[in-house]
Each structure stands twice: as structure tokens, then as C-alpha cells.
Amino acid sequence: MRTITLKQEMYLWAKQVKTAGHSIGFVPTMGFLHEGHLALVEEAKRDNDYVIMSIFVNPLQFGQGEDYTTYPRDEKRDKKLAEEAGVDILFMPSVDDMYKHKKSIKLMVTEKTDKLCGATRPGHFDGVVTVLTKLFHLTTPNRAYFGLKDVQQFAIVTALVEEFDFPVEIVPVDTVREPSGLAISSRNVKLTREDKQKAPALFNSLLLGKKLIIEGETDANVIIKTVRHYLDQQLGENVEVDYVEILTFPYLEDLSEVNGKVVIAVAVRFFTARLIDNIIVD
Amino acid sequence: MRTITLKQEMYLWAKQVKTAGHSIGFVPTMGFLHEGHLALVEEAKRDNDYVIMSIFVNPLQFGQGEDYTTYPRDEKRDKKLAEEAGVDILFMPSVDDMYKHKKSIKLMVTEKTDKLCGATRPGHFDGVVTVLTKLFHLTTPNRAYFGLKDVQQFAIVTALVEEFDFPVEIVPVDTVREPSGLAISSRNVKLTREDKQKAPALFNSLLLGKKLIIEGETDANVIIKTVRHYLDQQLGENVEVDYVEILTFPYLEDLSEVNGKVVIAVAVRFFTARLIDNIIVD
């Protein structure tokens, strides 16, 4: 595995590989790798000649009061995991190199941001699409891999690629779960032992929602109420349910009657960490 | 020459050519071709294995009350001229195909737009960078060619490519002029015979400004006043000088003292057409 830190070097490597007729799979990350990231690499290796993983904690997608400076970082461990997973190029640019030009043009997400996590993170997805536009241009992938755990990010990246005709295929990868059903996340380590035992309730609540739909329930409000009631019961008083939402997938439009492909998504605020999860039902 | 109208077909052609190791030069236009466009093709042919020209009158860059519907079009003549100039692929997408997705992400130019022509065309350059982003993705050029006559467009496209790391080199091409010095423009045919005789005054006023700088004048206001006075004298009462500006090149920043590379730019409103011109002085 080769580590590249300069944009210029990354671009030249990618250009050489593409000109030679090879395909590139791209896995963008903010580092602190876990099994979810490694599942993306595994998919990317299956479909492409070369795999680039980027590790870049993007300041542009953190709001005021968010945890940009304390975001977990472990470069040494990340390098080891990436190499073991079979990554060919680990791209770790500096903030100075990535944002060396004065900004005179802005990318803004004007739809799909007033729901799920976007509602409480103004500007977050502007930062996400800006850094991904740059990374796509620098790595020129045939395919880029995104976990479905952040379903809103997947929906917005899909829109970015469609609306601006990026020559890249966005490949969704299923959420990786612990045997308990708990979705793998960097934040799971922050949970207290007691909360960790409660946390599988998120996925179980989603399975309950799915079951209702499969049994014929079409009223979104009924499903939301049932899922929320289940969460409240399972999690107890000290845990706050941020949201339970049902939206169309992948466009994330509001709906009152369930019809076609939908996503049920939940966010729960434990004392030491906020967790999200979702399930797609067709 | 092959004409392509579908985005998907354009993208697949470009992919095939790039994968085979060939280079692509790209000349984006709104059609109604003249010698200025053909000079871009000539440069593109010199540097690249294949040349793509696009003809697309982009509704997004026309404001309310601007001439989108009456913008001059002559597909038959354009095809003939493009073929004679040696264009390999003429890409003529439809508006429906280009903008088939609902817009949920916006590109906005937030700097460099309050001067020159941008001051009176709000949103114009948002439309320009949006369509160019799409066209760059669809044609994946190694180099793209822009005339310096629209110096503000060149500056903003340069910023687009730098700030978002597009893997494309922007090549500036000098303005093509008639023997009188008049810059070639689709709008010249709209001039009355009398105005056509007066119009070379634009370039002569720029040469006067350049002469002042070379002779040591550094006060931008003095140069602007002298150029404007010359234009007023030469053009007479029925012609309105829209602006005379001196800015840094290529960043188009305001300056009071001339230093380094600058551009002197003028816009003049004749009764039947508005003309622009500029000169770069180092």
C-alpha cells in the first residue's frame, strides 16, 4: 500500500492508472476505521482493479460547536487496517493542501437537508458535497462506495452525481451490524455499558416498523408512533429519541402513505453518544 | 465529424477514448460560430488527439428579460464550420436531457461577480459554472479552451477548476480581431454601419490605457479617466460607456495602484448592440 499526501501526486497516479485502462474504486472516509469501512473496501476490491481510500477529516462539514478538533484520529491503526484490507492507495491530504485556494464558488444543498440529521446540522451537507466533488476529481474513480448507515449522505451524494453528471457510479453498501443488531459506528465505544446493552433497541425498532409495513400498514404516522413507543419503552427515561422518520428512498421525500421503496430512520441521544440507524423497506 | 446529442453517448465515447490513452480537447460554445470559436478549435487540435465542441444555449445563464429565446441559432452553418475546422465530436444535447434531474444542489459564484458584466447579470455565472461542471464531467477533457474576450468568464472558470480540483487544464486563447482592431463577436452583425465604423475605438482605447501603463502611470483612476474620455470623444453622444475598469488578472480584484498583471476592460452600449473588450497588461 502506498500513502499519498499531495493532491497533485494523487491526481497524477489516478490519471496514469486510468490512461492504462484500469478501473478505480474509491472509499472516502474520515478515518478511525471500523468494520463498516472495511466492508466498503471489500466491495470496492471485488469490482475494480485498484482501490483508493481517502482519510480526511473535513473541517467544512463540521458546524460551530461540533467536534472537529476532538474527532477521533488514529493514523497508525488506520494505516494498518487499510493495508490489511487490501487498499492500494491511502490518500491522506492536509487541510492546507485541500483548501489552498480562496473560495469564490460555493456548492449548496438546497433540498433534502431539512430532515433527519440535516435538520440540526446546517451547512453540514454543503461541506460533504464540496469535499466529495474535490475528491472525485482528484481520484477519478469508476465507482465510489458509501455505507447506507448514513442514508441521508447516500441520498445527497446520489443527487450530486446525477445533477452534475459526475462520471462515477455510487455504490451503496449495507450497514454492518454486531450480532446484537447494533450498527457498527465509531461512536459505539463512547457508550456506557448499560447503554450498550440498550442500544440494539434501535435496530429492533426498525425491524418492528418493517414488520408493520410487510403486514400491510400504510399509514406513516401509525408506524412512526409504534416505533417511537417501542423505543421509549426499551430505552427508558434517560435516553432521548431525536427522531423517527419515514421517507421515500432514495429521494428522501416526505410521505403520509407508505408506497414503494421507503426508509425508516431513527436517531437516539444516549448520555455519552448519539446513534443513528435506518432500514430500507420495499 | 460525428454529432452526439445524448449525454450518455457522449460520456461513453469520452470514456472509451480516455481509456485508450488518448487526450481530449474541449471547446464549449453556444453556437452561431465565428472566427473566435474556430481559433479555440485550432488551439485544441494542436494540443490533443481529439477535439469535442459542444453547442448548447444554456437557459440557466440567461436572466429574466435576457435574450434566451432570441439568441441566434444556425445549426446547419455551425455543423459545416465545425467540420471544416476539424472538430471530431459535435456535442449538441437537448435542454431536457441536460437538466432532467430536479435540482437539489446549487453552484453559486460568490466573488468576482459584482464587477464587469457580472454586476448587471445576477445569477449569470452560476449558470455558467453549473453547465461547465456538467460538460466537463460528460466530456472528461484534458484541456478546455476559453477566449479571453470574456475575461470574467475565464477568471471564474479558472477559479472553478482550482477550487474544486477539476482534472482539466484551462487554456486561455487571445481575442481574434478584425484588421481594424474590433474584437470578433456574434453581436457585431447587429451594429449599424455608422456604429461599426466607430467600434474600433474600443480596442484603441485599451491600447491607450496599455500605453499609459507602459509609460509608467500607476494610478488606476487616471488610466480609467483617460480611457473613458477617449471613448466619449470617439463614440459621440448616442453611445453609452457602460464601464471602464482595471482589475488584477486573473483574479479580478480591485486595485488603486497598477502593479503586476492587470486587465483593462470596457463595455459600450451602441443603439443596437452592447460590445465588450479588454486587454491584459503585465
TrEMBL record, chains A, B:
GO terms for biological process: pantothenate biosynthetic process. One of its GO terms (cellular component) is cytosol. It comes from Virgibacillus chiguensis. Its main location: cytoplasm. (R)-pantoate binds at residues 61, 153. Pathway: Cofactor biosynthesis; (R)-pantothenate biosynthesis; (R)-pantothenate from (R)-pantoate and beta-alanine: step 1/1. It catalyses: (R)-pantoate + beta-alanine + ATP = (R)-pantothenate + AMP + diphosphate + H(+). The reaction proceeds by a bi uni uni bi ping pong mechanism. PANTHER family: CYTIDYLATE KINASE/PANTOATE-BETA-ALANINE LIGASE, PANTOATE--BETA-ALANINE LIGASE. Its EC number is 6.3.2.1. Catalyzes the condensation of pantoate with beta-alanine in an ATP-dependent reaction via a pantoyl-adenylate intermediate. The active site is at residue 37. Belongs to the pantothenate synthetase family. The gene is panC. The keyword Zinc does not apply. Signal peptide: none annotated. This is Pantothenate synthetase. Keywords: ATP-binding, Cytoplasm, Ligase, Nucleotide-binding, Pantothenate biosynthesis. Beta-alanine binds at residue 61. Homodimer. ATP binds at residues 30-37, 147-150, 176, 184-187. InterPro entries: Cyt_trans-like, Pantoate_ligase, Pantoate_ligase_C, Rossmann-like_a/b/a_fold. It is found in: Cytoplasm.
